[in-house]
Amino acid sequence: MRIGELARRTGVSERSLRYYEEQGLLAAERTPGGHREYPEAAVDRVVRIQELFAAGLCSSKIARLLPCMRDADGGPSAVATPKLVEDLAAERERIDRTIADLLRSRETLDEVIDAARGR
Amino acid sequence: MRIGELARRTGVSERSLRYYEEQGLLAAERTPGGHREYPEAAVDRVVRIQELFAAGLCSSKIARLLPCMRDADGGPSAVATPKLVEDLAAERERIDRTIADLLRSRETLDEVIDAARGR
DNA sequence: CTAGAACTTGACACTGATGTCAGTTTCAAG
DNA sequence: CTTGAAACTGACATCAGTGTCAAGTTCTAG
């Protein structure tokens, strides 16, 4: 499929999809005229990438991580190096802290909302 | 206490504390010479502010939210307007989606980490 | 009184993903 | 062919919190 369809199906802008390619996150074949041609699996991959961005990982870490993930179709094509594992473990902890923050903030919002809606 | 101590005790930079004041998030008395003087309660407040920032709220929303929160010492000094409640409910949903993203990403990281560490 | 630590304001830089615009080229249907 | 939709590259803008530096002022211990 081409970039417009991929954008539509994932809800990610074309701009971002090109950026992902630039960052080595998302490969694409090219038509003879130079247009990007994505395989079906790209949809899943883009969703994964978005999740990881939303989780606060930067593109370079995502780039190192992606080859080690088991894809929708088939096992991982690489195993994480010790260095990467260390990095990911740190990200994991950061994510845990973030979740804790979010839960506390959600609690705070709920209190204010409930108070305003009359308990 | 003064800004240096508050920064030390909260782990937030002096720069950020001044920014919070500029944004109307954190009031401070002034010494005759112009130095900021914070009450003890500022520590809790700064922690709350940081949590809300970490949860992805922007300073203007935090500014509107803060007066409606029950502080460490005493009840809220205001009740949220309907407009604010609507905003906060939207933020709440965004937070829920973010938490879901984080959980999925954490799962992904765990898979890669476990695979590298030999299952 | 004095030295040095701590504080003040103001300004500019950065980050990093994404938006947007311009000018050109390719694709696909009639 | 022609034509309009879709895609290409490249460049510059944005956002918002934070870092950092400079030049000057205040505070406090000795």
For the biggest sheet of chain A, the summary is: 2 strands, antiparallel
Seen as an oligomer or otherwise, the chain set is homodimer
What Rg of chain A, in angstroms, do the CA atoms define?
A: 19 Å
Distance between the termini of chain A: 51 Å
Determine the mean pLDDT of chain A.
93
Helix/strand order of chain A, N-terminal first:
HHEEHHH
Class from secondary-structure proportions of chain A: mainly alpha
Strand content of chain A: under 5%
Residue ranges of chain A: pLDDT <50 for 5 or more in a row? Answer: none
The main sheet of chain A orders its strands as 1-2
- Any idea of the CATH class of the largest domain in chain A? Mainly Alpha
Number of distinct helices of chain A: 5
Which fold name fills CATH's third level, the topology of the largest domain in chain A?
Multidrug-efflux Transporter Regulator, Chain: A, Domain 2
Range of helix content of chain A? 55-70%
Shape of chain A: flat
- Count the E strands of chain A: 2
Write structural notes for this entry:
Two copies of one chain form a homodimer. Chain A contains five helices and two strands; from the N terminus they run H-H-E-E-H-H-H. Chain A has helices at residues 3-10, 14-22, 42-54, 59-65, 82-116, and strands spanning 29-30, 36-37. Chain A has two domains: 1-78, Multidrug-efflux Transporter Regulator, Chain: A, Domain 2; 80-119. In chain A, a hairpin with a 5-residue loop joins strand 1 (29-30) and strand 2 (36-37). The radius of gyration of chain A is 19 Å and the shape is flat. The model of chain A has no long low-confidence stretch (mean pLDDT 93). With 119 residues, the first copy, chain A, is mainly α. Chain A binds chain B through residues 48, 51-52, 54-55, 57, 65, 68-70, 76, 79-82, 84-85, 88-89, 91-92, 95-96, 98-99, 101-106, 108-113, 115-117, and chain B through 48, 51-52, 54-55, 57, 65, 68-70, 76, 79-82, 84-85, 88-89, 91-92, 95-96, 98-99, 101-106, 108-113, 115-117. Chain A binds a DNA duplex (30 and 30 nucleotides) through residues 2-4, 13-16, 18-19, 31-36, 53, 58-59.
